[in-house]
Amino acid sequence: MPNEVLLDVSELAPPEPLTLTLEAAEQLQAGQYLRMLHRREPCMLFGNLDDNHFKYFQRKGAISAVEVFIWAEDDKEAAEAVQAIIDAQD
Asked: Do 30 and 57 contact (CB within 8 A), yes or no?
């Protein structure tokens, strides 16, 4: 099973990006992380992720303006996969 679940919400109008991202995060399986592509910083998202026990990392995207990586707080495999992506960009 691939670790990454890709969700491109860059062309959607609010509140669809927030709704779809939270729904996709809830469906993540062990070892999976969500890579969400957006045209701007999704400021309303981060508090919701914190409240629902998700971790995240945001960076400027290569394909879109912003990429946000999201994984379950207790998912070590997904956290390591995202960390490898972060390390590769340095």
From this structure: no
Q: Distance between CA 19 and CA 60 in Å, rounded?
A: 21
The answer to pTM > 0.90 is: yes
Banded pLDDT at 90 (limits 50, 70, 90): low
**Contact between 58 and 2 (Cβ < 8 Å):** no
Say which residue the tokens 């993540």 belong to: 28
Nearest to 85 by CA among 66, 67, 63, 73: 67
- E strand intervals along the chain: 4-8, 33-38, 54-60, 66-72
The matching CATH number, chosen from 3.40.50.2000, 1.20.1250.20, 3.30.110.40, 3.90.226.10, for 4-89 is: 3.30.110.40
